[in-house]
Each structure stands twice: as C-alpha cells, then as structure tokens.
C-alpha cells in the first residue's frame, strides 16, 4: 500500500469569488466578473456557497473530516474597493474573523492574493497589461502582509497563464478577447514580475512565513511519434507550462523556450514581449528566495500538428465531446483512443501529475518544495430525494479519481520529489467561472438554493487518508 509522509498536509481549496457570494455587501468594490456575468446572464456569483457568512460552519466540517489546511483567497476589492487608495475596514475585519476561525478549528490557512478577481477599476486600466495595476498589486500585497501576520503561507497569484490565455486567446474570461497571443504573453510576463516583486518585498519584511506562486500545469504529450506532433507538443508546453516554470523557478527564460514562444507569435504575426533588465533582475532574485511552487494539475494534453486557423469551443455545460482546441501556430489537441475523460472533456491521467512533479524536481532545483494546490474532478451531482441532514452523497468517481492521483503523487515522493501538501479542488461545491454551478468538485455538497451543506463519501475517504497517511483502497 502506498503511503504519504508523516508530515504531509491534506487540504481543501477555494477562491473568494467562487465561494463567498456577498459581492455587494460591506462595501466590496466591483471586479471584472460582476458586470460581465450580469450581461451574459448565464449565472450569478451570488450567493455562491455563501462562505462570507458560513465560513465557520465550513471550517468546523473541515476539522471534523481531516482537512488540516484550507486554501482561500482574499478578495482584493473587499479591502481596496477601487483597487488602490481607500481602505474598507469591514473587508479587513472579515478576513481577520476568517483567520480567527481557522485558528479556532486548528486549520492552517494558505492565502492567495489574486485569484482571477481583478478590481474593476484596474481591469479597465488594462488589468495585468498595465503598470498601474502591478504597482497597486504590490501595495495591496504589502498591506496584507502587515495586516495579517497570522497568515504564514502566502500565494502571490493563482495561475497567471490561465488568466491571461482565457482573457485574450480563448476569450472565455472577461474582457473576452480572442487570438491575441502577444497580449497573453505580455500579461503573463507582467504577472511573473508582479509576483517576483512581492516575493522579494515579503522576504525583506522578514515575517518568517512562506511565499510562492501557483501555476496551472498540464503535462503535454505528442499525439504520435512524428516529429511534427512532437514539435506541436513542445510549442504547447512552452505556451502553457515552460515559460512560467522558467520565469518563476529558474529566474530566467531559457533561450529554447523563448524561440518556441517567438515561433508562435511569428506564425500569428504578433510581436514578442520585451522584458527589461530590471524585470529580469526581479525574477532572478525571487527564484532564489521562493519557498514553494503550487501545482494545479487536473488533466493532461496530447498535441498534433495543425496548420489551419485557430478554433476554440469551450464545453461549459458538461456535454461530453463538445470541446475543440486548435491553435494556429501551435497545434491541435487530440486525445489518443482509450483516454478516459470527464463530462467537461478533461482527461483523467494521473501519470501526468507524476510527470509534472518529477519534471519540477529534476529541472528546477532552486525551488525547495512543491505543494499540489489544486486537483480534483468536476461531476454532475444532485441531492437524493428525501435527503435529510444526515444524508451522505455517494461520489464513487471522485474517490476513484483521488485514489489514482494521490497515488501518483506518492510515487513521485518516493522518487525524490519534495511534495508536502495536497489540496483537493474543492473544499465545498462552488461557483465555476465558465461553467456555473453544475460542475461540482467539493468534498462537501452545497445545495445551491438553500446553501445547506451535506457530506460526500469522498470526505469520509479523505478523513481516513488524512489520519492514517495510507492511501485507502
Ligand atoms: C482552476 C482555477 C479554479 C477552479 C478550477 C476548476 O484553473 O484556479 O479557480 O475553477 O480550475 O476549473 P473549472 O471551474 O473551470 O472547472
């Protein structure tokens, strides 16, 4: 039987906008999603899981079911409603109460400073493409470091790549721009610089905690052994993984990575981003001080050569087999026969988790530790008829998924990777940015009309693992 190390922590993850609800309460400023979602009319972020009012209940459940740590994010616009300047004391107070409740329930908070929720004022100024946004972000981060000394684990930014790609390449995040690889690379570079500036500032403040960044990392494989398919996989890897591993964990961009990036941009007739010496110095300094990298891994990708125009169709409803991803200058995603997928077309491939952990271990020796900051499976689930508060929701597919992925993590640890923490996405069912409420990930079921919580069987499985560190059958 595979085992996890004795000091390994088991956690549950969330993000402010996906759980809190209360988007108009206590002086919170608007974020990029508010008007966008209202206009789209598909789903509302209110009340989501109503975590703003029910955090204590969720933390009590967490304690009961062996969740030792939770990943939450601070909603920047609760504290600075306009992104900068005026401070809203009710927002500050809310996070103090949340961290107090964590302490009461013996739960360690890992706190993300930016999880896809740029304040609207700064979004309109260019979001991650604007230097004003970067400066405001550094000020906000320093404020949080001083205000919340009880937090000992900080995450600068969640998934710079998925934010940028979805904002300006696939157009699934606001403002919904498509096909602008140049803007995505520039925004990603800027996020890495912002993250580096914050890491360097945090270390200067000598607060004794840990700080790192979280990346979305999908392991990319070629569809076949042909040189063309292998090259498509290299391009996709540079686009989604390698540039960010280089920038944040090596502190410099490998020339080979940059030439792959340039090839993508040239094919799309778009200009290359131009880092300054000062920015590169910040990246280098931060890579030598970063305490951990957070890995979000759910699925892997297979690429084959493709010469046509870009075409992307997002499966946002769970209608299996409807997603399309063909990127001009990169390639086409195509899963080999026999690869299992979820209803949202995400592959289930635990080896991809193992391989990404080993790659970081082998190729990025500066980073001291790896934390799996998100992993889990989105499923369609409903409350059985006649459910009472004791009803336990049966979710065998989630247990199976967790067993396979956590075993893959245990194997990587046995091979030398320094993986210390695992966060399931997600702690409780929550709002999914482009899929609404039908894609459930939680250990705890949330009945969305009433926001009442129910335990899932996976929570019982999780508790056993957390207590014994043996991966239960
Ligand atoms: C990650 C995000 C999370 C979360 C998760 C699941 O990329 O950091 O915020 O949403 O993916 O994705 P989805 O909600 O699209 O299924």
From TrEMBL:
<dbReference type="GO" id="GO:0008422">
    <property type="term" value="F:beta-glucosidase activity"/>
</dbReference>
<feature type="binding site">
    <location>
        <position position="296"/>
    </location>
    <ligand>
        <name>D-galactose 6-phosphate</name>
    </ligand>
</feature>
<feature type="binding site">
    <location>
        <position position="115"/>
    </location>
    <ligand>
        <name>D-galactose 6-phosphate</name>
    </ligand>
</feature>
<feature type="binding site">
    <location>
        <position position="158"/>
    </location>
    <ligand>
        <name>D-galactose 6-phosphate</name>
    </ligand>
</feature>
<feature type="binding site">
    <location>
        <position position="159"/>
    </location>
    <ligand>
        <name>D-galactose 6-phosphate</name>
    </ligand>
</feature>
<dbReference type="InterPro" id="IPR001360">
    <property type="entry name" value="Glyco_hydro_1"/>
</dbReference>
<feature type="binding site">
    <location>
        <position position="439"/>
    </location>
    <ligand>
        <name>D-galactose 6-phosphate</name>
    </ligand>
</feature>
<dbReference type="Pfam" id="PF00232">
    <property type="entry name" value="Glyco_hydro_1"/>
</dbReference>
<keyword id="KW-0378">Hydrolase</keyword>
<feature type="binding site">
    <location>
        <position position="433"/>
    </location>
    <ligand>
        <name>D-galactose 6-phosphate</name>
    </ligand>
</feature>
<feature type="binding site">
    <location>
        <position position="441"/>
    </location>
    <ligand>
        <name>D-galactose 6-phosphate</name>
    </ligand>
</feature>
<dbReference type="InterPro" id="IPR005928">
    <property type="entry name" value="6P-beta-galactosidase"/>
</dbReference>
<dbReference type="InterPro" id="IPR018120">
    <property type="entry name" value="Glyco_hydro_1_AS"/>
</dbReference>
<keyword id="KW-0326">Glycosidase</keyword>
<dbReference type="InterPro" id="IPR033132">
    <property type="entry name" value="GH_1_N_CS"/>
</dbReference>
<comment type="pathway">
    <text>Carbohydrate metabolism; lactose degradation; D-galactose 6-phosphate and beta-D-glucose from lactose 6-phosphate: step 1/1.</text>
</comment>
<feature type="binding site">
    <location>
        <position position="432"/>
    </location>
    <ligand>
        <name>D-galactose 6-phosphate</name>
    </ligand>
</feature>
<dbReference type="GO" id="GO:0033920">
    <property type="term" value="F:6-phospho-beta-galactosidase activity"/>
</dbReference>
<dbReference type="InterPro" id="IPR017853">
    <property type="entry name" value="GH"/>
</dbReference>
<comment type="similarity">
    <text>Belongs to the glycosyl hydrolase 1 family.</text>
</comment>
<dbReference type="GO" id="GO:0019512">
    <property type="term" value="P:lactose catabolic process via tagatose-6-phosphate"/>
</dbReference>
<dbReference type="GO" id="GO:0005829">
    <property type="term" value="C:cytosol"/>
</dbReference>
<feature type="active site" description="Proton donor">
    <location>
        <position position="159"/>
    </location>
</feature>
<feature type="active site" description="Nucleophile">
    <location>
        <position position="374"/>
    </location>
</feature>
<protein>
    <recommendedName>
        <fullName>6-phospho-beta-galactosidase</fullName>
        <ecNumber>3.2.1.85</ecNumber>
    </recommendedName>
</protein>
<feature type="binding site">
    <location>
        <position position="18"/>
    </location>
    <ligand>
        <name>D-galactose 6-phosphate</name>
    </ligand>
</feature>
